[in-house]
Amino acid sequence: MTEQGVAATDNSGAGNSAASRDKAYFLHPYTNLHAHETQGPLIIERGEGVRVFDDSGKEYIEGLASLWCVSLGWGEERLVEAATRQMRKLPTYHVFGHKSHEPGIDLAERLIKLAPVPMSKVFFANSGSEANDTAVKLVWYYNNALGRPEKKKILSRVKAYHGVTVATASLTGLVNNHRDFDLPIARIQHTDCPHHYRFAEPGESEEDFATRLAESLEALILAEGPDTIAAMFAEPVMGAGGVIVPPATYFAKIQPILKKYDILLVADEVICGFGRTGNFWGSKTMGMEPDILTCAKQLSSGYLPISAVMVSDAVYRACVEESKKIGTFGHGYTYSAHPVAAAVAIETLKIYEERDLVGHVRAVAPLFQRRLKALADHPLVGEARGVGLIGALELVADKETKTPFDPVGRAGAVVNGLSQENGLIIRAMGDSVAVCPPLVIGEEDINLMFDRLTTALDAAIPVLR
Ligand code: PLP
């Protein structure tokens, strides 16, 4: 259609500005679609270090690293060059049917060598959701290979976030990802959320709370039938559910139960992987020994979409046996191990090593956590929680009774909006607001980030009270 034709038939209300064209044409993910029709977008034009700038030139500290992923910040020329070099050499090629290429091979080798526990092989996908969806299918395939067609149920946790495909949104334990999407699908069970502040009994220690959750998990497994449960998915630190750090001894108590009933552990390292919690893997920080590990986001510093699924030798061997029996392993994406994304991921991993990014996180995390936890004294904050360079504040109407604001979500939205006005991008998840800046952030910007957050919290008091 000609441009004239569009104009003649267009009744969308589109004007010439980017904001009005956005409202006219763009269906946004994770956005209140009704509010967007009046409110419109915040248009981000460019980035530099830990900062982004909108189309009016206003500067923001990106306190969530653009959805928990831009570890190296904006403007990392080495990633641009790695992508450009690969674009010129082999801009795209698939890896189906025995085809391969050097960037895919190199990245797989690097990941296996970096794995927190011995792993055998890497499968590549394009997003965290696809990686976890692949893990679900591998778990089912594995149990069919072992002749256990009944062992297929998958456990996840209330407030978990594992993605938005049909299967992974079902694993996600958040109401908004199920409601009106006709989810969850069958064979998914949610067990307790390991949030001590919200769900511990009065006076219950972290250790006792962890024991109770482990007992509750075992009771669920026994009620469902251990022979029907195939795997449990868990983020080392729950991210989008509100940055929930599990209580002390949690995984130490959960894992023997999974082992006892031959249930695989899938570690979802989509946020925690690559240094976020102060170790290269969140699994190390939390003492997890997964059979399958998924990662994405910081794998490429978010510069290009790529994700990975690492599997243990036992899982891999069973899949090989099944393939021997039935032929081709019938799973893969056109862009699995996309060579340009893989080249950028390889360069990202090289930079992590050369610049000792984990060492940097360990050096600045104490200041980050000190500033975060000092906000527990703020009149609106019920709990300040976090580890490494990730944290959240839970906003409450009454600190003594932990009573949430009514309606839930308004306080989070208010603090989110005021932070943005004050030059800080964070993320509200209900009434918890998360901070998760680029891993390269320095002490000066950590202080500035928390100064801006404090200003926003102070400004929220008269609005919310
Ligand atoms: N798993 C975790 C822990 C995540 O935080 C996310 C996204 O935030 C996902 C999976 C899904 O990743 P994606 O949005 O790339 O599909």
TrEMBL record:
Name this protein carries in UniProt: Aspartate aminotransferase family protein
Pfam family, one: Aminotran_3
Family: Belongs to the class-III pyridoxal-phosphate-dependent aminotransferase family.
Keywords: Aminotransferase, Pyridoxal phosphate, Transferase
Top-rank taxon: Bacteria
Source organism per UniProt: Azospirillum argentinense
Reported cofactor(s): pyridoxal 5'-phosphate
SUPFAM superfamilies: PLP-dependent transferases
GO molecular function, one term: transaminase activity
Gene3D superfamilies (alphabetical): Aspartate Aminotransferase, domain 1, Type I PLP-dependent aspartate aminotransferase-like (Major domain)
